[in-house]
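Task: sequence in, structure out. Protein: Tyrosine--tRNA ligase.
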Amino acid sequence: MRGAGPDIRVVDNWSWWKDVGAVEFVSDIARPFRVASMLAKESVSQRMSSEEGMSCAEFLYPLFQAFDFLHLHTKHNCWLQVGGGDQWGNITSGCEFVRKKTGHLVHGVTVPLLTTSSGDKLGKTAGNAVWLTGSSYPLYQFLLQTGDHDVATCLHRLTSLPPEEVDVIMQQHTTAPESFLAQKRLAEEVTRLVHGGGWGYAKECGNCVDCSGGTDTRGDCDKGSIWRPPFSEVSYQ
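Result:
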């Protein structure tokens, strides 16, 4: 993608993995890795001690991710890998792999994950993902269900609102939590960021569902009505 800012290139790792055979994988990619170091990774030890255990495919995944980093570094001049906090072990393995192969010091950065109240991360694997594509309505409704004790964190992490403004929103929300002011602002800001003007349609649908007792009438309702959340809540840590 080209524009006023830096060029952004999206690549598919199948374009280089399709030419890698089993012998090359074992002799060239897997050789620098040490099993003891891989077992010492916190993510591996936690997975192996879990009830589900860890499959061989999962155990070898850091090798694939490391080779991806090497390819991006050598072919596209990529020096930094960014991922969620649960990717720390994979990213450090990739940095070490690139150093052994090229002698270059590359870098990795991880960011905190949004997790449910039970500690599970939000995502397609856990079955609780909210998709950014498609209609704006599901995203808007998903964010409206954020728990009171988590909404401030989400406003800080998921929006570009200044911290001072978030503090004001939370003060107002604490005064009248039944109005769900903070949740509405969170839903508005994030949906506007993702869908642009589509957030207004999502808000209107939410109002209509509320007024009609669960049926989206899209226009036969009071647009100024207060949205009432469903019984379930989405919580974050």
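The radius of gyration is 23 Å.
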